[in-house]
Structure prediction request, 653 residues.
Amino acid sequence: MSENRNNVLKLENITMQFGGVVAINNLSLEVNQGEIVALIGPNGAGKTTAFNCITGVYEPTNGIVYFHGEPIVVNHPQGKMVKQYAGINGDLYREKKPVAHTPDRITHMGIARTFQNIRLFKSQTAFENVLIGTHLRRNSNMFTATFRLNAKEEKANREKAWNLLEIVGLAEEGKELATSLPYGKQRRLEIARALATEPTLLLLDEPAAGMNPQETDELGSFIVDIKNRFNLTVFMIEHHMNLVMDISDRIYVLDFGRQIAEGTPEEIQKNPVVIAAYLGVEEE
Amino acid sequence: MNQKKSKTPMIITLVLVAAIYVAVFIAEQTLPANSMLFTVLKKGATYALVAVSMNLLNGFTGIFSLGQAGFMLVGAYMYGIFTIPIAQRASVYQYFDGGMIQFTVPVIVAMILAGLAAAFFAFLIGLPVLRLKSDYLAIATLGFAEIIRAIFQWNGLGPITNGSNMLRSFPSFNDFNIRDGQGNVTVYLSTLIPFLMAGVCILLIVLLINSSYGRALKAIRDDEVAAEAMGINLAHHKRLAFCVSSFFAGVGGAMLAMYQTTVQAKSFTSAMTYEILLIVVIGGIGSVTGSVLSSFLFVACSEWWLRFLDEKQMIGTFEVPLLRNGFRLVVFSVIIMIVVLFFRRGIMGDKELPDLLSRRMKSEGRRKK
Prediction:
């Protein structure tokens, strides 16, 4: 299907229906290697739901998610949903075998994410938070870890965690409890933790939420910086239009679960549909 | 950059622990062997291990399990079944023609078997039960413990478990004493050996907790969704914690068998689980040090210091009111309520001994400046 190897992430006709509510309706999008792509839309448009479908938190009702050309999520309406299904293209994938992975498997494949409402490990220090992110690439098992036979790996992981903390500018705060850090730093720490899982695709869910304009500016250059440094592809949800317009290569706009526009920042800014649905309200 | 943790608190802790072991050894050689102190120390060591194993689940992984008594029962029975001397089997299994198993294994092997059997049961029950969360999981594990208790008393299993009759005559803590030819004890080890057993097991648990896996467990406790997003396989890690915890509960059960010198399924009630839960809560959920300290405190109170509450006490000619059989438990309940209401974080909170030491050293260092 998706022969274009340049596609890091490709969503095809994703529909997510909870009971009678269609949270996402037939969403298709592509994120290419090295791009920063933003997903914007008013509150409740289904942006975070889209993230949850990609990362395996939810199983979409219909549609396919490709990651580096591999289908990682495949589903079509089943059971009760066959009758209830209110989206479109419901019988497109009827012949396909459903594929579903738990979130940890998907992280293992190379998709890391941050959360809209920060979810750090609250009883752990900043350093330990990042260190936990290195756990999934381990070669040790429980016994070698208990008897410290993995000392080399452990040391490498610790160094890696400190390096990441330094890159996100939190080396000083490494020993502090993660939740005692100021908000902006917690957001950076979440990104560092996500980077520790060695992703190729980074999903950022409102990375600038709660930041002041200056912090937001810094965050923009920070995202570009880590993208280049780690050879990442970034897909982000964001409400700060300055940030979105500054750093994204392309933008998708969602409204009420439907994709209403797609294009470069310039195109989106001029798009009358978007202005009506979203930006128009802000410009008043 | 202060990447390296100071090693001093760790060393002080190790020295302290070593000192305790030496003190136990010396006390055992000098004090009378029937002193209440040793009863407390032996049972305390046993409960410390079980409490730490329960803390691994409840405190470090955030799985609220109440199956501890069940796993201890499995461990105690495994130990008893495989260590009763062949000569004694005919009298122990008198209703079952001397039982089915006619061989013994060394004590240490029997203890490991006890742990493995408990871990195996944990694996089986974990398959359906670990999908549940909080209260539901607690109820399911509690139910499991009750079922296990009933099964082990079933006559059909009599040739192995001796039905509802007790197992006895297996090696107990007192058999670790070194005796001379006349049977007189030359070196007392009956308290030191359980201390060593519990110590080694707790050390293993501590090593696990401070490893990469331990961090993953703590991550699950803090936030399951985030842990999963960090690539931690929830099912795998929860099962692992459940089996490891049960392994050590099984070993603890074997130690309890040695302490009691007899094993009977009906004594492994849910009340036993609650006792251990209590120890964990009083010690501090998420603190190994706390669990260890509070198990000795708990055992000392229940076996020794508060015993007087169960008997009539006279002050001169005045008979103290209320004191009679069972009053100890009333006092105990009040203490527990006070702990839960006012000291919710227990003795240690989630701190360990080295943490406390390093904090003290830090504050002293600051004062010097």
